[in-house]
Specification:
Layout lengths: L8 E7 L6 H9 L6 E7 L6 H10 L6 E6 L6 H11 L4 E4 L5 E2 L3 H11 L5 E8 L17 E4 L1 H9 L18 E4 H6 L11 H10 L4 E12 L13 H16 L7 H17 L7 H13 L3 H13 L3 H16 L1
Parallel strand pairs: 1-2, 1-4, 2-3, 6-9
Antiparallel strand pairs: 4-8, 5-9, 6-8, 7-9
Helix pairs in contact: 1-2, 7-8, 8-9, 8-10, 9-10, 9-11, 10-11
């Protein structure tokens, strides 16, 4: 154990047509109590005045935080923007911030503190909350909770996949890139890149991240405030394109399950896989994934889950059951 000094944190913000949000996002970075920060904003060819609003905030800032705006030559998507930012960082730690969200004033200071005391910690995550107003500073205290120190990959995966929860009902570890401070060596050594052109990229990235991390620390402080926009993937009815894209993500995850190692992952994700399988027009391409999920469940002696998965998958091969499944899901969503 040793305490690192003068550690630099790199914040990466992918930006595309977020004129209504980018100002508050960048302002929340300028308010950080930890001074040694570089903020890399990757403009993915915005067609609105996002860049101008971003530059306006930066030009009026007189503090120690360094800002850089990188420019893509053509629109490549959020995954590519994050990858570009990751390649450009010069800090020992990296933190991804979405351009329509904000962070608390003490976000980086709170997340970095455990890592300065213990060099074996690879990832630190804070708590996040959906906010609907600009008065997010008053939300940062939250319920009284304790930090969680997770040492060892098995313990980390047990914490996530076995549904341990905060008193508020949310999982300790969440399937998002955001609000995780990571050592840049951990990110690079494990090749934790984002698949360009892929929607639901966080889910795919998270699968590889949680299979790589050996020491994770969970901070109970509210450090991240996210905004759910009307055109967000997670808002409203999921368009057909996003169903196809999410199906490809689940398909890739399922095909990369290792029966001897990924029993918890298979048990956790097979219901979501079936949900997508029922709606996805590309479901016939999922045969290898179906086989690997079943094999992984069987190898870990999840007999009940093997039966549920096998019977449901068989029934969903028939159009009438696929239609019934979708109608049932639609009815349950309305309740």
């Amino acid at each position: 154990m040793k305490e690192e000094t003068n550690a630099k944190v790199s914040i990466v913000i992918p930006m595309y047509n977020v004129s209504d949000y980018i100002g508050n996002c960048v302002k929340s970075v300028t308010k950080q109590t930890y001074p040694n920060i570089e903020c890399i904003i990757v403009n993915d060819c915005s067609t609105d005045d996002s860049v101008a609003k971003c530059e306006s905030v930066i030009s009026s800032y007189k503090g120690p935080i360094q800002f850089r705006i990188l420019q893509h030559e053509h629109n490549r998507g959020v995954s590519a923007a994050r990858n570009t930012g990751t390649e450009a960082v010069t800090g020992q730690f990296i933190y991804y911030l979405d351009s329509d969200d904000v962070i608390s004033n003490e976000c980086i200071e709170k997340l970095l503190a455990p890592m300065l005391k213990d060099e074996t910690i690879e990832v630190v995550q804070g708590r996040s909350i959906l906010f609907k107003s600009k008065d997010y500073d008053n939300l940062s205290k939250g319920p009284d909770m304790q930090p969680v120190d997770l040492v060892g990959r098995d313990l980390i995966q047990e914490e996530f996949y076995d549904s341990h929860k905060w008193p508020t009902g949310h999982r300790h570890i969440v399937v998002y890139t955001i609000n995780k401070l990571m050592r840049i060596d951990f990110v690079r050594n494990n090749r934790l890149k984002y698949k360009e052109g892929q929607l639901w990229e966080d889910v795919l990235w998270f699968f590889y991240m949680i299979n790589s991390v050996n020491h994770m620390y969970l901070v109970p402080d509210l450090t991240y405030f996210y905004c759910k926009r009307p055109n967000s993937i997670t808002t409203g009815t999921i368009p057909q394109k996003e169903i196809i894209e999410s199906g490809r993500v689940y398909n890739e995850i399922a095909n990369h399950l290792i029966p001897e190692k990924n029993g918890r992952q298979a048990k956790y994700m097979y219901k979501a896989f079936l949900n997508n399988y029922a709606r996805n027009p590309e479901y016939k391409q999922f045969k290898p994934a179906v086989k690997n999920i079943r094999k992984t469940l069987e190898a870990n002696h999840f007999k009940k889950d093997v039966v549920i998965f096998t019977v449901t998958e068989f029934l969903l091969r028939f159009k009438v059951f696929r239609t019934l499944f979708r109608l049932t899901e639609k009815f349950l969503r309305k309740k």
